[in-house]
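Let's practice the habit of predicting before peeking. Look at the sequence and jot down your guess about where helices and strands might fall. Then scroll down.
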Amino acid sequence: MVTGILEQIGAKSPIADIAAKVADGVRLTREDALRLYQCEDLLSVGMLAEFARRRMAGEGKEKHVYYIHNMHLNPTNFCVETCRFCSYANPGNDSYTWTVDRVLDEARKGVNLGISEIHMVGGLNPICDLDYYEEVLSTIKKEFPHIHLKAMTAVEIEYLSNLEGITYEETLRRLMAAGLESMPGGGAEIFDDAVREKMAVKKTPAHVWLEIHGVAHSLGLKSTATMLTGIGENTENKVDHMLLLREQQDKSKGFMCFIPLKCYYEGTNIADEVKEPSHDDLLRDIAIGRLLLDNFPHIKAYWIQLGESLAQVALSFGADDMDGTILEEKITHAAGAKTPLQLAKERMEELISKAGYTPVERDTIYNIKRVVDTVAHDEVPLRDRVASLIG
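Done guessing? Here is the structure:
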């Protein structure tokens, strides 16, 4: 396996020395990651990430690609923050805040379809205080005790803690007592201060975001981590963002997955100021995420943002997860995403299988629920799949 990847990359490749480090299990440096972003041979970067993915997966799981049968719940879209890239929050007359009963009714729709997870995030709304979220979580958990509640970004935890005048730990303990079982990784955006200032991101700076996840991990909560691109960041910003995540993971070891995200611009005024990520950029983020974040078990190809075809290709660039069936996604679609609002389990399994991998239904913390026995498909050569998307 090691010899194979070195032969594929080739001794004359500009990243041959990086490939040798990956093959030997040597941790990559900031300079290595920057060179991978600069490397014109995208396929070699992808092949190296695929090697790292298969090794991380372990024997017998080299071709496993995970998904979850879940739904998204967004109890409110009112937000005191005014991030320039956000089209979801504060949409004038369309602003809403759900009652606890309405949240329960929405949850019931997903439960009736057989979901195993509710993924809940929302705006920073003074009406939705800690008492509100405790009631929401406990009500859902009482009605549907078998459903895993993945909720509350670090941004929401910071806001609620400040609203109540209590510590992050106290806030998390109260929410856990109400039913919180894991945390999503939203709100990280890009950690670089200059980018955040330009995008009017006043919420949860890097050290606070990382601290809150560290506290959550110390309490036994697992979480995910994100990176948002297309908001004026450069390559160095992305690498530094990932390195801060890697450093935190070394300390607290509670991140399950890294999720590169892209910005959509409909309803914002930033499109003329920033560079929209290309397919090449998005695949590199996934591949370099897999190579640099050697302590993250999983890398996600978030089909809602990538679209089905690019998400399939991303599975050969180091991703081993396609997220979930979702039921109804609001945040990305509010900004103009044209991807479906949901995918049936059968469609998810078909996408994974046709990409040449084995679909695996998982729970929130990556316990395997079912390895799907699908019709075998020949794996389309990586070069052909990439060519069809980016030329």
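How did you do? The first strand starts at residue 64 and ends at 68.
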